[in-house]
Amino acid sequence: MIKIMTTRPHIFLKFHRHFSHFRSHLDLIPKQVSLRQFCSNSRCMLLTSINKSWSSGSNNSYNYRSCQKYTTSSENSNKKSDGTVNIPWWGRLLIVSSIGAGVYYTYKSAEHEKELDNELYRYKEFEKINLGGDWTLIDHNGNKRSSTDFRGQWIIMYMGFTHCPDICPEEMEKLGTIVKTFDNSPHLPKLQPIFITLDPERDTPAVIKDYLKDFTSPRIVGFTGTEEEIKEVAKKFRAYFGKGPKDQDNDYIVDHTIIIYLINPKGEFVNYYSRSRTATEVIQSVTKHIEKYNELEKR
Question: Which Pfam families match (predicted)?
Answer without folding.
Answer: SCO1-SenC
